[in-house]
From TrEMBL:
Name of the protein in its database record: Quinolinate synthase
Primary location: cytoplasm
GO biological-process terms attached to the record: 'de novo' NAD+ biosynthetic process from L-aspartate
PANTHER family (alphabetical): QUINOLINATE SYNTHASE, CHLOROPLASTIC (PTHR30573:SF0), QUINOLINATE SYNTHETASE A (PTHR30573)
Biological role: Catalyzes the condensation of iminoaspartate with dihydroxyacetone phosphate to form quinolinate.
Family assignment from sequence similarity: Belongs to the quinolinate synthase family. Type 2 subfamily.
GO cellular component entries: cytosol
Binding site for iminosuccinate: H25, S42, Y113, I114, N115, S130, H199, P200, E201, T216
Length: 310
């Protein structure tokens, strides 16, 4: 079946026909960002998924995000344009190995970053995102030991910000580990007026050069309100589209990866395209599903996150 010439028009028609909402992450390609009903970071997207009245949720993001929407909306149809849009960070925490890790620390509270599978969420006490991890850890009594999974870089950042000693799972994101400190210093030397801003999934060698660290939404807000007009941005480069749109006239330079590659583009996020978004709505698939017991066990830690967030 051929795709229509006016894909955006066709997607907008399908939104009405299906009573669908398109939720998109900032790492999606610009055409998808522009057709989304809501664009946000993982916390914002979870809140939208929890609050929407739409019957169909089309998740232009990666699998763990669409899974979270399904956990919050078991009776709704949740679509992911490309079902292979996974996440290296989620993959770095296999459920069987994590179960053994958790069993080795029986008295520990388990706080898991939302970038994990539904199985890991089901084994967790509280979920967090990059925008509320510090705030959530700060609410846990000081004498309660904590496992933090799966992102070791975010975990180390939370340890530095809270002064807490966390037991870290050694996972990481291939995109945020790609930035080169040496090339970042070179770039900063050539652009001394530029301010480095970074996502906390980056390694400490990058974060130590950043004057602002935050979630994608926090980084975006910062560039809008900062009096400065040039930024070196250490996160997936898809967010530059929104930064340029929302602060025209300011300059945004992607932080340089180690090699001469487009490794600061997430290969999973970029599997989704406008065509696949249209086809998923037209065909009402691929649909996100999961076993009921996993879904039910994963719901409580997500709800705790929503309750504990500001
Ligand atoms: P946030 O948008 O919540 O900052 O997360 C970034 C990310 O890793 C999405 O995969
Ligand atoms: Fe996962 Fe990293 Fe891609 Fe985010 S940017 S979806 S953490 S691989």
């Amino acid at each position: 079946m051929s795709t229509p010439h006016d894909l955006v028009g066709a997607i907008n028609d399908l939104k009405k026909d299906l009573n669908a909402i398109v939720l998109a992450h900032y790492y999606q390609e610009p055409e998808i960002q522009d057709v989304a009903d809501y664009l946000g970071d993982s916390l914002g997207l979870s809140r939208q998924a929890a609050d929407t009245n739409a019957e169909v949720i089309v998740f232009a993001g990666v699998h763990f995000m669409a899974e979270t929407a399904k956990i919050l909306n078991p009776d709704k149809l949740v679509l992911l344009p490309d079902v292979d849009a996974g996440c290296s960070l989620a993959d770095s925490c296999p459920p069987d190995q994590f179960a053994a890790f958790k069993a080795a620390h029986p008295d520990h509270l388990v706080i898991s970053y939302i970038n994990c599978t539904a199985e890991i969420k089901a084994m967790s006490d509280i979920i967090c995102t990059s925008s509320n991890a510090v705030h959530i850890v700060n609410q846990i009594p000081a004498d309660r030991p904590i496992i933090f999974a799966p992102d070791q870089n975010l975990g180390r950042y939370v340890m530095a910000e809270t002064g807490r000693d966390l037991v870290l799972w050694q996972g990481s994101c291939i995109v945020h580990e790609t930035f080169s400190e040496r090339r970042l210093i070179e770039l900063k030397t050539k652009n001394p007026q530029a301010e480095v801003i970074a996502h906390p999934e980056c390694e400490a060698t990058i974060l130590r050069h950043a004057s602002f660290i935050g979630s994608t939404t926090a980084l975006l807000k910062y560039t809008q309100t900062s009096p400065l007009d040039t930024f070196i941005v250490a996160t997936e480069s898809g967010i530059l589209h929104q930064m340029e749109k929302q602060a025209p006239g300011k300059q945004f330079i992607p932080a340089p990866p180690t090699g001469n590659c487009a490794c600061n583009e997430c290969p999973y996020m970029r599997l989704n395209t406008l065509e696949k978004l249209y086809v998923s709505m037209r065909d009402r698939k691929p649909e996100i599903t999961m076993p009921a017991d996993i879904r039910q066990a994963a719901l409580h830690p997500i709800q705790r996150m929503l309750e504990m967030s500001v």
